Amino acid sequence: MAAETSQTIYIVDDDESVRVALTRLFRSSGRTAIALSSVEELLRCNGLKSACCIVADLRLAGADGFAIPGELRHIGINLPVIIVTAHDTEKVREQARRAGVVAFFHKPVDDRALLDAIDWAVAGTGSQR
């Protein structure tokens, strides 16, 4: 499935180098990327309803990446959330499933696999615009 230029992906990671790298990746694939450093910053964004998905780190200052699906549901937004983390254990993967995360990747993530997961998640939720 080809990406559409209207797809907006929110990146939530407290590591600036990761935000920059993912922003470049998503923009090079024809998507719009908005990079943020915390869950709190994400929840203050006015454009969330027009996003296609969120790619977030697990360990963040304040709320962790697993909080995002629940926080979004709480404000009436249904977006797929993909977690990318350096902290990959079976326990963490189970937490991801329970939190409602649609995909889970260990850093460093393969670019093509992440883009494919985004396409799959967007197609599965009907969020593609």
List keywords for this structure.
5-stranded parallel beta sheet, Rossmann fold, 5 strands, 5 helices, alpha/beta, globular, 129 residues
Explain how this protein is built.
This protein is of the alpha/beta class. It has helices at 16-28, 39-43, 67-74, 90-99, 111-125, and strands at residues 8-12, 32-36, 53-57, 81-85, 103-106. The chain has a five-stranded parallel beta sheet. Strand 1, helix 1 and strand 2 form a beta-alpha-beta unit.
List the helices and strands and how they pair.
Blueprint: E1 8-12, H1 16-28, E2 32-36, H2 39-43, E3 53-57, H3 67-74, E4 81-85, H4 90-99, E5 103-106, H5 111-125
Parallel strand pairs: 1-2, 1-3, 3-4, 4-5
Question: Judging by the overall fold, what is the CATH architecture?
Answer: 3-Layer(aba) Sandwich
Low-pLDDT ranges: none
Radius of gyration: 13 Å
- Gross morphology is globular
Q: For the largest sheet, list the strands in their spatial order.
A: 2-1-3-4-5
| H-E order | EHEHEHEHEH
**What kind of assembly state do the chains in view correspond to?**
single chain
How much helical structure, as a percent, in the residues? Answer: 25-40%
- Total number of distinct structural domains: 1
Mean pLDDT: 90
Total number of helices? 5
How big a fraction of the residues is strand?
A: 15-25%
CATH class annotation? Alpha Beta
Q: How many beta-strand segments?
A: 5
Provide a concise account of the structure shown:
The protein has 129 residues and is an alpha/beta fold. 40% of the residues lie in helices and 19% in strands.
